[in-house]
Amino acid sequence: MAEPLASGPEHLQAEQVDSLVAAAGVDGALAILDAFQRSTLDLLSVMGEDLRSGALSEASRTAHAVKGSAANVGAAALAECASAIEKACKEGDGAVASQQLSEAQKYYLAFCEEFKARIEHL
Fold first, then answer.
1. Is 113 a domain residue?
2. Contact at 8 Å (CB) between 51 and 84?
3. CA 65, 71, 75, 80 torsion: positive or negative?
4. In CATH, what number is assigned to the domain containing residue 84?
5. pLDDT tens for residues 10-68?
6. How many structural domains comprise the chain?
7. CA dihedral in degrees (80, 84, 90, 95; nearest 10)?
8. How far apart are CA 47 and CA 53, in angstroms?
9. Which range of residues forms the domain containing residue 72?
10. What's the pLDDT band for 8 if we cut at 50, 70, 90?
11. What would the pLDDT profile of 62-102 be if each residue is shown by its tens digit?
12. 3 belongs to a structural domain
């Protein structure tokens, strides 16, 4: 197996990606990444709209969905950030949730790049 890629916060849980590849093969893992990318982009967009309109309850539910799907594919930093957004929304702190959304978008992009790089090294 390939060694974990260097990163700041743990964007990618290498063992989770390796498990996906072992179960689904490289093509299957790439298909999972593609589905994750499409759904997560949509969810992050909806979450941003909800936060801008003050719909914190809806944003909290969306953050919960992002947290779960991110954890399933090994996007550790994104899952943790989505959890922080969910918590901020439940506490009524839209400003903190909005700040965290900006971080979540960065973590999402970093994860996708690291996922593809890891697959190429297997």
1. yes
2. no
3. positive
4. 1.20.120
5. 788 999 999 999 999 999 999 999 999 999 999 999 999 999 999 999 999 999 999 99
6. 1
7. -150
8. 10
9. 14-120
10. very low
11. 999 999 999 999 999 999 999 999 999 999 999 999 999 99
12. no
